[in-house]
C-alpha cells in the first residue's frame, strides 16, 4: 500500500523489500524477549537463591524489557509490515511514551546496578543503608516515577517518525526539552555507569594485588602475619548475591561484610601458627577466593551494559550527524532495528554468564514440563 501523503505512513520505495528483514527480526525479538524475560521473573519468584536485594534490580530491568517486547514490539512489527501505523493517534502517543519510559527505566537501573556493585566493595555499610528492603522499594518505584515524569510532558509531540516507522517525539517540536532529556539519560546516565565500572575495576585490581602480596609473603613463611590481610581482601569481595534474606538483616544476612573480620581472623591465624610450631608441623592454607563470584556477576552486569550501549550507538550517532535527514531511510531503519536487541538479549546473557540464573531457568522449565505432562 502506498500512503505517501499520510502522516501515519512510512512508505518509501527503498524499504519495500527491507521491511521483511525488519519484520522477521521483530518477531524474533518479540518471542525471545517475551519468553526470556518471563522466565527471568518466574525464576526469581521460585528460586530462593535468586531472591537477593541486588537481583531485584535485575528484575526491574527485566520488567522494562518485558514492557517493550511483549506490549510494544508487536505494534512495531505491524507498522513495518504495512509501512503504516494502523493503531491511531492516541495509541501512537501511548506507544511513544512507553517506549521512552522503558528505555529510561533501563538506563536508571543500569546506573543503580553499577552503583550497587561499587558500594559492595567500597562501603558495605552504606550499601546496606541504601539498598535495604525499604530503600529497594523506594528505588524501584522511583525509577518508574522518574521515567513517566520525564516523558509525560512530551505527550502532545509524540508522532509517527516516518524514517524509522516508529512513534516517537517530534524532534523539532520537542526541543529543547528532548535534547536535555537525551543528554541526561544517554550521556550522563550511561557515562556514570561507565565511570562506576571503571572504579570497580580499580578496586578489584588493588585487592588482587594485595592478594598476590599475601601469597608471596605466605611462601616466605609469614602466613600468620598476613592472614588478616588475605581475609580482609577476600571479605571485601564477599559475594552478596546468593541466598540472601530480602529483609537485609545484618544479623542474619550473608550479604554483610564485617569490618571486624581482619582483626579476629588475624588472631585466629596467629594462634594456628603458634600451634603448628609447637607441634612441629607446617600449616599451609590457601585463602578461598571469595571474590570470584563477585567478579563473575559484575562481569555479567558490565556485558549487559555494553550490549545496551552498542545497540544504541549507531542510532544515536545517526540522529546526531544526520539532523537534516539526508541519509537513506533504510539506514535509519537498520539503526533503529539494532536497538531492539537490548530488550531481548539479557536473559540469554544471564543464562550464559550466571550459574544461579541458569539453574533458575532450568527449574522453571522443569516445572512447566511436569505440569504439562500431568494435564495429558
UniProtKB/TrEMBL annotation:
What's the domain of life for this entry? Eukaryota
Q: Which Pfam families match?
A: 7tm_1
Positions of region (Disordered): 258-290
Domain G-protein coupled receptors family 1 profile residue range list: 36-350
Question: Which UniProt keywords are listed?
Answer: Cell membrane, G-protein coupled receptor, Membrane, Receptor, Transducer, Transmembrane, Transmembrane helix
Location in or out of the cell = Cell membrane
Q: How does it sit in the membrane?
A: Multi-pass membrane protein
Comp. bias intervals (Low complexity): 260-286
Q: Which GO terms describe its biological process?
A: neuropeptide signaling pathway
GO cellular-component term (any) = plasma membrane
Q: What is this protein called?
A: G-protein coupled receptors family 1 profile domain-containing protein
Starting at the broadest rank, the lineage of the source organism is: Eukaryota, Metazoa, Chordata, Craniata, Vertebrata
Amino acid at each position: 500500500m502506498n500512503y505517501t501523503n499520510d502522516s501515519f505512513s512510512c512508505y518509501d520505495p527503498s524499504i519495500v523489500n527491507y521491511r521483511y528483514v525488519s519484520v522477521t527480526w521483530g518477531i524474533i525479538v518479540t518471542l525471545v524477549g517475551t519468553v526470556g524475560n518471563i522466565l527471568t521473573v518466574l525464576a526469581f519468584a521460585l528460586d530462593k537463591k535468586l531472591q537477593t536485594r541486588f537481583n531485584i534490580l535485575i528484575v526491574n530491568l527485566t520488567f522494562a524489557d518485558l514492557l517493550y517486547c511483549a506490549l510494544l514490539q508487536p505494534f512495531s512489527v505491524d507498522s513495518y509490515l504495512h509501512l503504516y501505523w494502523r493503531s491511531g493517534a492516541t495509541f501512537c502517543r501511548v506507544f511513544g511514551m512507553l517506549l521512552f519510559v522503558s528505555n529510561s527505566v533501563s538506563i536508571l537501573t543500569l546506573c543503580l546496578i553499577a552503583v550497587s556493585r561499587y558500594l559492595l566493595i567500597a562501603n558495605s555499610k552504606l550499601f546496606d543503608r541504601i539498598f535495604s528492603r525499604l530503600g529497594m522499594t523506594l528505588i524501584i518505584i522511583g525509577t518508574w516515577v522518574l521515567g513517566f515524569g520525564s516523558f509525560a510532558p512530551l505527550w502532545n509531540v509524540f508522532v509517527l517518525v516516518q524514517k524509522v516507522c516508529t512513534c516517537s517525539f517530534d524532534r523539532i517540536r520537542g526541543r529543547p526539552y528532548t535534547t536535555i532529556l537525551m543528554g541526561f539519560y544517554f550521556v550522563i546516565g550511561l557515562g556514570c555507569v561507565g565511570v562506576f565500572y571503571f572504579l570497580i575495576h580499580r578496586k578489584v585490581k588493588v585487592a588482587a594485588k594485595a592478594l598476590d602480596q599475601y601469597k608471596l609473603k605466605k611462601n616466605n613463611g609469614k602466613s600468620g602475619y598476613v592472614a588478616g590481610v588475605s581475609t580482609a581482601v577476600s571479605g571485601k569481595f564477599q559475594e552478596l548475591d546468593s541466598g540472601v534474606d530480602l529483609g537485609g538483616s545484618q544479623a542474619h544476612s550473608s550479604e554483610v561484610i564485617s569490618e571486624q573480620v581482619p582483626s579476629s581472623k588475624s588472631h585466629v591465624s596467629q594462634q594456628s601458627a603458634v600451634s603448628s610450631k609447637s607441634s612441629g608441623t607446617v600449616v599451609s592454607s590457601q585463602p578461598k577466593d571469595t571474590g570470584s563470584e563477585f567478579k563473575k556477576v559484575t562481569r555479567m552486569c558490565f556485558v549487559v551494559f555494553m550490549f545496551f550501549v552498542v545497540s544504541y550507538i549507531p542510532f544515536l550517532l545517526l540522529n546526531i550527524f544526520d539532523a537534516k535527514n539526508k541519509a537513506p531511510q533504510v539506514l535509519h531503519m537498520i539503526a533503529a532495528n539494532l536497538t531492539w536487541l537490548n530488550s531481548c538479549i539479557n536473559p540469554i546473557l544471564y543464562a550464559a554468564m550466571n550459574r544461579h540464573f541458569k539453574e533458575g531457568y532450568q527449574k522453571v522449565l522443569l516445572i512447566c514440563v511436569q505440569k504439562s505432562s500431568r494435564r495429558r
